[in-house]
Amino acid sequence: MRYILVNKPFEVLPQFTDEKGRATLKELVQVPNVYPVGRLDYDSEGLMLLTDDKQLQFRIAEPRYKVPKTYWVQVEGIPTEEALEQLRRGVQISDGFTAPAKVEMLPEQPEQLWERSKPVRFRAAIPTSWLELTIAEGMNRQVRKMTAAVGFPTLRLIRAKLADLTLEKLAPGKWRDLTPAEVQELKMAVADTPENEGPANARRKPTQKYDPNFEEKLAAEKAARARRAFEKSGPSRGPKRQTSGTGTGRSGGRQADGPAGATRGGRSASGAPRGGKPGGIAPRSTGKTGGPGAGRPSSGRPASPSAKPPRRGK
């Protein structure tokens, strides 16, 4: 599997395709089958992780695992201590109430910060400040909404750290593979712990232990399920056999076959009216089974003078 660290520049989409022709990660990283872990907005910069490890992608994005993401935030104005405390407690934004964040004022711009391709537009009469803000959530444009909610809009946003990964001296637009030690540390950061599996998350769908061979095992399990389903279905069944008896099959009435002497519609199975003498006139063949004319004598009269004609249905 591949684990790639990239420094996304300003105004580059955090994806590999764009119908509008804007710059994407494809222009920076020519590695097939790797995908971004989370998002970093078009107008934001900094650290992004690309990988083909789907299990790791899910766990870093899942708030339950509380993977910290640290940002350098340039805001308009000088935040008050009250505003910083609001961010530390959590604030109400359009997506909901945020979890408590770690926030510190920086005395100046971070030393390792690079010049942006387009300078930040700000008002000369209003000073700017730098914050270091750490969250473990991933709401849409969360950091920008948080600083705006306390009265200090964001001017520039850089992701500086993901778990223990940092950019160090990686220039904008450049990338590198993670070392085996970095990969191991990242997997430990999203490992199952009592904190992640505690009562607060009891209703969440349980996840499996981290497995580096997860994709191969998942494919084998799907193939086994498909094979069992095919074997269970068995050979296709042939057409149903027709019920033996007089006539070519079922018609409007009941079939004529059955135990000897059984009556149907006031007549015996042999076709003679109930109470008729044996050896009476043979019933006229109509080619139908159990229909209204089944068993009726050819003369239209009962087989015996003492037998009453059958009652016609209403």
UniProtKB/TrEMBL annotation:
Coiled-coil intervals, chain numbering: none
Transmembrane segments: none
Annotated Pseudouridine synthase RsuA/RluA-like domain residues: 3-149
Residue stretches of biased makeup (Low complexity): 258-272, 295-306
Family from the record: Belongs to the pseudouridine synthase RsuA family.
Protein name per the record: Pseudouridine synthase
InterPro entries reported for this sequence: PsdUridine_s_RsuA/RluB/E/F_cat, PsdUridine_synth_cat_dom_sf, PsdUridine_synth_RsuA/RluA, PsdUridine_synth_RsuA/RluB/E/F, PsdUridine_synth_RsuA/RluB_CS, RsuA_PseudoU_synthase, TruA/RsuA/RluB/E/F_N
EC assignment: 5.4.99.-
Top-tier EC class: isomerase
Basic and acidic residues: bias regions: 212-231
UniProt region (Disordered), positions on chain: 190-314
Keyword Cell inner membrane: no
UniProt keyword annotations, A-Z: Isomerase
Organism: Hymenobacter koreensis
